[in-house]
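Here is an idea for our session: we take a single protein and study its fold together. To get us started, please write out a protein record for me. Start from the sequence, derive the backbone structure tokens from it, and show both lines together. Go ahead whenever you are ready, and we will take it from there:
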Amino acid sequence: MPEKFNGKTFRTPEESTYEIPPEELERQRRGWEEFDRARDAVPPEEQIHLRDRFGDEDKIGTADEAAYWADVEERKKRGEYWG
């Protein structure tokens, strides 16, 4: 049964009603392989760390959006927001 979380619906692959064509899956796989090669080629001294809160933008458009923006403003005041 699909689960709802923060206004979004999540389904298992078995529950999905959308079939991804094999060509599309292959194209995506090649894209990730290319990304991994580029990422692995970056020397350690040039690598950067993504902030721990990377991805919180998923709350935009949900009931938690106002709290998200309030938290962003607080982090800006503390100098902890780089986005």
In short: The helical segments are 22-40, 65-78. The chain has one domain: 3-78.
